[in-house]
Amino acid sequence: xxxxxxxxLDLNNGVAxxxxxxxxxxxxxxxxxxxxxxxxxxxxxxxxxxxxxxxxREVGEAVRExxxxxxxxxxxxxxxxxxxxxxxxVDAVARSTEALDLGPIDLYLVHWxxxxxxDYVDTWRALEDRYAAGAxxxxxxxxxxxxxxxxxxxxxxxxxxxxxIEAHPYFQQTPLRTxxxxxxxxxxxxxxxxxxxxxxxxxxxxxxxxxxxxVAQVTLRWHIQRGDVIFPxxxxxxxxxxxxxxxxxxxxxxxxxxxxxxxxxxxxxxxxDTFNWVPA
Length: 280
Prior knowledge:
- By secondary structure, this protein is of the alpha/beta class.
- The chain contains ten helices and ten strands.
- This is Oxidoreductase.
């Protein structure tokens, strides 16, 4: 990836996070190790997993076997939905740490707020404890709405380092991203290409033709210029390499504005205010 270096952002605790990550959602455990090794070979240095994905162990194996120094690879994992209880959360961190076998986890997230399941404030306090103990280098949240964040900020000590949310051209989340930024919280975007829905968009296709890139690359570049951390998922090494080749061109302000105009407030995933699924 010469001449295509992935930039990093500074989290609110000074830890640097690569702006492009490799997402492992829906990659089967049997396929995860090879996919992560290919991503690392392509130049990725940020791997995103979760207890819910069932592939933490394979992610850890890939990082250890890659030959890349541990401090050069940023690894994110997430608390499973059945661990929304302080004692369960502490145990979950221990299990993730054991499965990954990489030492302190770079970033650990509360995966969903689950407002009707448990008290995410108490769960967050458990992560604060693990962070203070050095088991986690950074802690953050995922799928938190402004109301959830406001309650955390009012009742806990550590400001989340990131908020990983659904964000893409059709669901841009501008008010929430603004709130995140005003409070020193980095926005991470999952489903950055809207689960492939953007690939047939005529506006994005027109811009892609103008800059000589694919629609996926244009969309990911738009995210990067907005300041998002992104996780395009692909089990195809060729597609993963294409997704990483987005740092040697820029979109103009006019091109970015045309993408901004695509916002339809169209959520594809669950609504965090009502999503309360817990695995058996």
